[in-house]
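Re: How this chain folds, sequence and tokenised backbone to follow

Filed under: protein folding, tokenised backbone structure, sequence and structure records.

Contents: The amino acid chain and a row of whole-number tokens, matched residue for residue.

Body of memo: The sequence and its backbone structure tokens, given next.
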Amino acid sequence: MPAYHSSFNEEADVRQVGNMSILPIKTKFRGVAPFADPSQPDIIDETLDLFRANSLFRNFEIKGPADRTLIVLILFISDCLAKIGSIRSTPNKIEATKSLNTLSVDSFPIPGDANFNLNAHYAPAASRADAEFLRSYLTHVRQELSLRLVNILYADGDIPNKWWMSFQKRRFMNRSLGA
């Protein structure tokens, strides 16, 4: 059974940095990401929808540049769940929001950096300016993703959803973005 791929692979006129799509998102944060139509799903909605199904796969055939963005975001969700799961006492929604926001803006490797775990599948940015743009874009998307993830995890109350948290040790493609 094949993994689920991004529906944004067929989008025309999408900017790419390296071989990663820079897709529009629905956001309240100010940043470099283009804004998406609020009535349509964006890459973050798609990532949250496909995370649990795709995290069961060890292999993933990349079919387009949006798949590369999807992979990075799925791996970031894994890191977020692991971060929440590693806190000694179960964090409430406010503590989880603070923790994940810190994780979102912390320094992280991008394609082309020596410590980026998936360099074999990603092309580096063509210039230093493109690399800085990609880092800013991913920071913006990670902030929005962590906010939406917390809202899903804590939709039923002040403890995280156990069905989502059951994926905290599961590794998509047996990889992690963390060092």
